[in-house]
TrEMBL record:
Residues 507-567 form the Rhodanese domain. Keywords: FAD, Flavoprotein, Oxidoreductase, Redox-active center. Pfam families: Pyr_redox_2, Pyr_redox_dim, Rhodanese. Belongs to the class-III pyridine nucleotide-disulfide oxidoreductase family. Gene3D superfamilies: FAD/NAD(P)-binding domain (3.50.50.60), Rhodanese-like domain (3.40.250.10). The keyword Oxidoreductase applies. This is Pyridine nucleotide-disulfide oxidoreductase. Its cofactor is FAD.
Length: 569
């Protein structure tokens, strides 16, 4: 028997669910409504249109074969009726209808449904700042915003830009302004790092330093108090500590789910927003489904509700909803939480929990940081990759991995590998013995993931005791009071330049010569071991342990991580 499916929302999940259902039940009717004139666009591509990587905004609304996904396309190609500029104002669950209003004419109507899909997405978080309505102040939520921003830049109207927020969108927009257009760009972030809670302070600092090299300025621990303008146009941003010139301002303070219409209809909604759904993407009304940025799903690591507004998740959920509308019982188990963001010619990615979020969730966890080449050491295009593994101490369970490296596929490929198995609760041993495709142009014989797990194993066993670059900075900054003995385990040509800059404070005994030169290494001082990446210094730690040294610390990531972190030795 044919059905009438109504879909509220036409950006990501809505079109996917509608099209999937229509393929399974061609004889049924689907009506999709959206209050905007723009539908089915790739919002995640907006920063790359602003940067110029995507040449035309229309590409964000096109299929891979260059057809524009407009109402005509959905009607003729997909068999779906689309009503744009139509706002859903109320869901009457008893009558099974959606009350709508034309946003242009004010005309009202009621659309009956057999089953309903709520795909209302999310809206940018507003800060209610004085001056946020000035010309030149924008959020980044649709192609119209992107066009306005890019036009003002291309006309030469923007020489200074301020980004509020150092999350995904904030960093991507900062790169777009600074890299492509050479705009003096500043990022104001209320916390003390980029990508708060997603990556450790060490990785965040590495990403920050790299972006600063690309011309982006960061101001952490600051709150924007006002946006000021002249003649109706923005000219400056005022924080609690400074005033910044700005002809363009991007507010990127996160998003909030559009779930009010669901709440008003009596559906289960979180107190802070977000529709609750089960594993079949159903609400507490069996005839109403919800998904994408307007809903909450289960975090598979904590079993708690999670809000993860990503286009990839919306599309996967949309297919499941479309199948279930047609009588299937497809399941969406939940999320791990995976991400990647491009930062100039590098990227930062992760899956699962950072150490901060793991500990906040109640896990007794540690993290280890490793820098290693992404392919065989003898292959000419090798690059250093930084990975950090988060592990529960008692069970050796892997809780997450984050990384910083090139913008190619090498690092995100490792992150995706772990993401694929994380919901199965892998341990260090599973990652240590993980099978990956090997060839020198693509990986080392002992892949960085294997080595990372081995590092975690050694750390839990207490035979590789160390700190990352942030820990090294603390030791180095307090070297006078702590009396640490900094021992460079590299060969002398590598160590000598640092010795010359730090006479009496930086010492050198190559790892292979330690047993023959023990008289140069004091037994009554804390020993801090450094090499290029932390591998040889680990071997040195084993050697000193065997000779009875009691206070020996290895610097994980070695000089490579110290340099990326920005410590000048």
């Amino acid at each position: 028997m044919s059905q009438h499916i109504v879909v509220i929302g036409g950006v990501a999940l809505g079109p996917k669910a509608a099209c999937r259902f229509k393929r399974l039940e061609p004889e049924s009717t689907v009506t999709m409504i959206d209050q905007s004139s723009l539908i089915s666009y790739g919002g995640c591509g907006i920063p790359y249109y602003v940067s110029g990587d995507v040449s035309d905004a229309i590409e964000l609304s096109q299929t891979s074969f260059h057809m524009v996904r407009d109402p005509k396309f959905f009607k003729e190609v997909k068999g779906i009726d689309v009503q744009i500029l139509t706002k859903a104002t109320r869901i009457d669950r008893e009558k099974k209808c959606v009350e709508v209003e034309n946003v242009t004419t004010g005309e009202k109507a009621c659309i009956n449904y057999d089953k309903l899909v709520i795909a209302t997405g999310a809206s940018p978080r507003t800060l209610n700042l004085p001056g946020d309505d000035l010309k030149g102040v924008n959020y980044v939520c649709n192609p119209h915003d992107a066009t306005c921003i890019r036009e003002s830049i291309s006309k030469g109207e923007v020489s200074n830009a301020v980004i509020i927020g150092a999350g995904f969108i904030g960093l991507e927009m900062a790169e777009a302004f600074a890299d492509m257009w050479g705009v003096e760009t500043s990022v104001v972030e209320i916390t003390d790092q980029i990508m708060p809670r997603l990556v450790s302070p060490a990785l965040a600092t590495m990403g920050q330093k790299h972006m600063e090299e690309g011309g982006v300025n960061f101001y952490f621990g600051e709150t924007v108090t006002a946006i000021e303008g002249e003649n109706g146009k923005v000219v400056r941003v005022v924080t609690n500590k400074r005033t910044l010139d700005a002809e363009a301002v991007i507010i990127a303070a996160g998003v909030v789910p559009n779930s009010d219409i669901a709440k008003e209809a009596g559906l289960n909604v979180h107190e802070r927003g977000g529709v609750f759904v089960d594993e079949f993407m159903r609400t507490n009304d069996p005839d109403i489904y919800a998904g994408g940025d307007c809903c909450l799903v289960k975090n598979l690591l904590t079993d708690q509700p999670a809000f993860l507004p990503l286009g990839s998740m919306a599309n996967r959920q949309g297919r499941i909803i479309g199948s279930n509308l047609a009588g299937s019982e497809s399941k969406f188990d939940g999320v791990i939480g995976s991400f990647v963001v491009k930062l100039f010619e590098t990227s930062m990615a992760g899956t699962g929990m950072s150490l901060e979020t793991a500990q906040a969730a109640g896990f007794d966890a540690i993290s280890v940081l490793l820098i290693q080449l992404d392919r065989a050491h003898f292959y000419p295009t090798k690059e250093l990759m930084t990975l950090e593994l988060v592990v529960e101490k008692s069970t050796r369970r892997v809780l997450g991995v984050q990384g910083f490296g090139s913008s190619g596929d090498a690092m995100v490929g490792r992150i995706n590998t772990v993401a694929a198995i994380l919901k199965s609760k892998p341990t260090i041993d599973d990652i240590s013995n993980l099978e990956v495709a090997y060839s020198p142009p693509f990986a080392a014989a002992m892949d960085i993931l294997n080595t990372l797990a081995n590092l975690a194993d050694n750390a839990l066993r207490g035979i590789n005791r160390g700190v990352g670059p942030d820990g090294f900075k603390e030791l180095w900054d307090n070297r006078e009071s702590s009396e640490c003995f900094f021992l460079d385990c590299r060969e002398n040509p590598d160590a000598q330049p640092v010795i010359d800059r730090n006479p009496g404070q930086w010492h050198n005994v190559p790892q292979g010569e330690i047993y023959n030169r023990l008289d140069e290494i004091p037994t009554d001082k804390p020993i801090v071991l450094i090499c290029n990446t932390g591998a040889r210094s680990y071997e040195a730690q084993i050697m000193l342990d065997a000779k009875g040294y009691k206070d020996v610390t290895n610097i994980h990531g070695g000089m490579a991580s110290i340099k990326k972190y920005g410590v000048d030795v």
